[in-house]
Amino acid sequence: MRTIPWLPLALMTSLALGACSNSSTSSHGPGAAGNGGGAGAQGAAGASALGAAGATPGAAGATGAAGATGAAGASGGAGAVAGASGAAGSASGAAGAAAGSSGGNPDGSADTHPSGHAFPSTQTVKIMVFGSSNELGTCWRAYLWQDLRMDGITNFDFVGQQSGGPSCTVMGWTDNQLQAMNSNVITNIPLSTYLTWFMANPPDVILQHVGGADILQNLPVDGVMKAYATALMAARMVNPKVVLLIAQHSPEGKDAIVTLNADIAAWAPTVSTADSPVVVVDLYTGITAADQSDGVHFNQTGSIEVAKRFLAALEPFFK
Question: Structural domains in the chain?
Fold first, then answer.
């Protein structure tokens, strides 16, 4: 049974003190998708990637009230997502609902937005794009910059230790800083490295699309998920109110990408908090070969689409 990694608050606190969020299992044991589950009586949620989800698989918490809302098992084949939705429900009814609502999507998409978390118009919001060659070598950052400005959002600044990238048809784009490396393998990157990156350019928002290089090298999905948890811990040590927009990875012709994306959808609600929301952005569904130059990297059409999806995720935090 695979376990999606998360790091407890105690570890975060001890690391924060030495260096300068959170599911609880239900008391009901493994089982199916809860009263709202669409996957059938069994649902295959018992073998949740996050652990035991409750006596009634997909039950959304001790009260059971969110179980009906969570609807963890909309697809019997998405067992990992279904079970994880139940586990998230036991942490909070809202998290259970968010994870459950995504169970029917083949890639486990869970695009949701927290309410009541918006940056004031007087604040210059520091946005860090954290990624790999798709971020360095394609046009989506330029199109996102353009789309934000066309939407009347100008109080932002892209930050990071790297800069540059193609602008395609975007005129006047010079705000091109980011945190990315070609073939960026994140498995086993230590906490200290993430801290170095984030302390150099403290982000208010992180747009994360990374881990694909690990999958292309046939590294385990669990290692990528552990890296996500470590990066989030480091970001919160630098800015406890950081917003993470984590992308379900774009297609690469690897079955492991589907597994990774389901794990992302299951993990995000368990670590999202009111002060530091974690929002899943689907960069998988509907992205086809026509949106890529080589089966991995975005072409201009794909870049425009990716920018639109990140724009939709960012807008609620500015309005």
Answer: 22-104 (no CATH), 125-317 (3.40.50.1110)
